[in-house]
Design brief:
The chain is an alpha+beta fold. Helix content is 23%, strand content 31%. Strands 26, 29, 30, 31, 32, 33, 34, 35, 36 and 38 form a ten-stranded antiparallel beta sheet that branches. Strands 3-2-1-25-24-23-22 form a seven-stranded antiparallel beta sheet, with no helix packed on it. A five-stranded antiparallel beta sheet has the order 4-5-8-9-10.
């Protein structure tokens, strides 16, 4: 009996010990805590480790050892559901300028729920003699809400890269005004290719500049300023001792309604950093004066009530992670030592359509805005009330490089006046109904406070087909293309009067070409008079200041299909810059113009080929590290394929571009084995897809043959494709060097 009792007691003791050990392990990992987790980098060695910790400071866990060296922007990123972490694996020391050593690096994805499973490698990069290939080392890795892609920045060159996790393909974007690690792009900023992005815009000279926090669209380049400008002064060319002010780390809240950022400015002999928040109505709240000199990272808690702020005494020193309550009810608390902080979400986000993250501010849709692209700043010739031609100007003249003209505000088209069919021969107005205005559109706007005004767009080269009498237009809808038309001639003001191509824009009280009061003057009023007295208004009293009533209808007219015959002629003549310019305008007028994307892709491809032929090996290395013509060609072909997945020509064009980029990389980076250049595989895949769509596509067979040969994927396959192309009538001797090399290689195999 005593023996049985002893065994029973021992069994209960073992169970109790097992439970204690299990609970201790669970507490260490924070698995059963119900608290959200924070990921960060830390460690005494130069190569830092990846850690997890609960939001209250408990459950600190070493998640991955020896991840990467200390560099701002190299922190981890939680997946939208909080079950995975994307992180940079580069077990080398970093200098402030970049990697110090040669070697390989990766972006990896690790599972939180199954920590023992191998990490997934989604991107590899190499460093050779301090040159990084293919993109530059990734920084500021972010995970958008759909979980299907990763975004990262390439420091120093303003590239935003989008990595498709299913295909491994990378798309690159040049963001407006460039970006760097301080822009700190966040998951909440980006919705695939058409989402909004928070970043810092700085413009000016090396000695004095201005900074804003901007909300920008990654593709259309439209923007909304949220905070700023503040003046940044660097009298000794970026010397911090004379530093006055700057903006750092704009970061969206989880619900998309607020942005937190760091405002850095000089206070006496000190440089002070303040943690601040701004909301959609541009209300600014300063939360905390940061004690350290260098803020490295910001992250919001899932409930939006707290902010994690990582600070350091220097850019190359490990810092402190603080937790700050947004409502100020508690003083900031130190969580742990580390940097590169990311806070896991505990539930999926559902954002309203009128947040920073998912749409421009609602009031901007009803405000009057300048009717031309504002980046770069439009050139201004004659202004309102300015003397000209012995008279007083009744509107404003604006000119931009893209020449597009937009509706200044929502409204209804009340007049479309085409260029009159009789040329000017006997003086202004003689037999010409356009009265020197040329192609003209007038739009009626109902003001929010009551009353109506009319916006006039004159001297247009073309008018968008969707702009017809009675049509309801939205703000920023394309009206047409600026020109120099008037008196029955398409270029009257340019050819006869020497004026540049421009838009003549008016706001007036009646929908007429003339002055509203007397009906006698067009675009001008008599000298020594005031346009206000003739029913005109200064447009600058409306831009960003006055609002219209919400439009009740949308335009149902089919999108314009601009004429691209001139662009095709430019391509035939090898004038690729002119072709790209024409096709870019066509795409702006109709963003879904599939053929224009395909043709522009081909023009970029040909232009890139021409550049490569005249480059040295070193020049080619630098060129490949930047966004170049081949990258732009791939982006255009990809868009064309998205608009028409059955376009074999677009697949073939993208295949040729991948092939050219791979061949260029093979020349520029001879130390890397050919098998490492994935563009050869991508080229083969695209040529194969083109052949599947059109089995008699001779050029696709010939392109695939070159990809097989140059990519060392099989000379016999290459020769079979050459023969197929020849049978289908392709001039295979167009590249004798390729044929000779292929034949010699086949002889060597025998």
């Amino acid at each position: 009996m005593q023996k049985k009792a002893g065994l029973k007691m021992l069994a209960w003791l073992l169970i109790a010990v097992s439970i204690s050990v299990f609970l201790a392990l669970q507490a260490r990992a924070g698995v059963d805590s119900g608290l959200s987790k924070i990921a960060y980098l830390s460690g005494e060695e130069p190569i830092k480790h990846l850690w997890l910790i609960n939001e209250d400071g408990t459950g600190k866990t070493l998640f991955r050892k020896s991840v990467c060296g200390l560099l701002p922007g190299c922190g981890p990123a939680f997946s939208p559901d909080g079950t995975k972490i994307a992180y940079l694996y580069w077990p080398r020391e970093f200098s402030e300028g970049g990697p110090r050593e040669q070697g390989e690096g990766e972006i990896r994805i690790a599972s939180i729920q199954e920590p023992g499973t191998p990490d997934q490698v989604v991107l590899r990069f190499k460093v050779i003699n301090e040159v990084t290939f293919p993109l530059g080392y990734p920084s500021c890795i972010r995970w958008p809400l759909d979980g299907k892609e990763l975004y990262f920045l390439v420091p120093g060159n303003g590239l935003l890269c989008r990595l498709d996790l299913s295909s491994g393909k990378i798309a690159r974007y040049n963001l407006p005004w460039g970006v760097g690690p301080d822009s700190n792009i966040r998951p909440y900023d980006i919705r695939g290719g058409d989402g909004k992005i928070a970043f810092v815009r700085t413009e000016g000279s090396e000695s004095t500049s201005k900074s804003w926090i901007m909300i920008a669209d990654g593709e259309s380049r439209s923007f909304v300023p949220i905070f700023g400008p503040i003046t940044v002064r660097y009298p000794e060319v970026w010397g911090e001792e004379d530093f006055e002010a700057n903006i750092l780390l704009p970061t969206w809240s989880p619900d998309g309604h607020k942005i937190t950022f760091v405002l850095r400015k000089r206070e006496g002999d000190d440089i002070a950093n303040y943690l601040a928040i701004i909301d959609e109505k541009k209300n600014l709240k300063v939360l905390w004066r940061i004690p350290d000199i260098t803020p490295l990272e910001l992250a919001w808690s899932p409930d939006g009530e707290r902010i994690a702020c990582c600070t350091s005494a220097g850019i190359a020193q490990e810092g402190t992670i603080w937790i700050i309550k947004v409502d100020g009810s508690e003083p900031p608390k130190q969580l742990t030592q580390g940097f590169g902080v990311s806070w896991a979400l505990t539930k999926p986000l559902s954002l309203s359509p009128q947040t920073f993250a998912t749409g421009t501010l609602q009031q901007d849709d009803l405000l009057f805005r300048m009717p031309v692209t504002q980046d770069p700043e439009p050139k201004k010739y004659l202004q309102y009330r300015q003397p000209g031609w012995g008279k007083i100007h009744a509107g404003i003249d604006l000119a931009t490089n893209d020449r597009l003209v937009f509706a200044t505000a929502p409204g209804r088209v009340v007049l479309v006046q085409p260029l009159c069919n009789k040329k000017h021969t006997h003086g202004p107005g003689q037999g010409c109904l356009d009265h020197g205005m040329g192609n003209t559109v007038i739009i009626e706007h109902e003001l929010e406070g009551g009353g109506k005004v009319y916006s006039l767009y004159a001297h247009l080269e073309t008018i968008d087909p969707a702009i017809k009498g009675g049509a309801i237009v939205k703000a920023n809808q394309v009206i047409g293309r600026m020109g120099a038309s008037g008196y029955g001639e398409t270029d009257y003001w340019l050819r006869r009067k020497g004026q540049p191509i421009h838009l003549h824009f008016e706001i007036k009280d009646k929908p007429v070409l003339s002055d509203p009061k007397t009906g006698q003057h067009y675009g001008y009023v008599p000298a020594n008079s005031n346009p206000d007295d003739y029913g005109y208004h200064n447009p600058y009293d409306f831009f960003g200041k006055k609002r219209v009533k919400k439009a009740t209808e949308t335009v149902t007219s089919k999108a314009a299909q601009p004429d691209i015959r001139q662009a095709i002629e430019y391509i035939k003549r090898g004038l690729y810059d002119q072709a790209i310019s024409e096709l870019s305008l066509a795409i702006k007028m109709n963003p879904n113009f599939q053929e224009a994307y395909r043709l522009r892709g081909w023009a970029y491809y040909q232009k890139g080929k021409q550049k490569v032929e005249n480059m040295s090996r070193v020049e080619m290395q630098d060129w490949l590290l930047e966004e170049n013509e081949l990258d732009k060609a791939i982006a255009d072909f990809t868009k064309a394929i998205k608009l028409n997945p059955k376009d074999a020509v677009a697949y073939c064009g993208r295949g040729w571009t991948y092939l050219e980029r791979a061949n260029s990389a093979a020349v520029a980076l001879r130390d890397i084995p050919i098998s490492e250049f994935l563009d050869y595989d991508r080229a083969i895949s695209d040529f194969t897809k083109a052949i599947q769509i059109n089995p008699k596509f001779a050029e696709a067979y010939y392109g695939r043959a070159q990809a097989y040969y140059f990519g060392e994927k099989g000379d016999k396959k290459a020769w079979e494709d050459v023969q197929r192309a020849k049978k289908l009538g392709y001039p295979i001797d167009i590249d004798p060097w390729f044929l000779r090399g292929l034949k010699e290689s086949l002889k060597g195999e025998k």
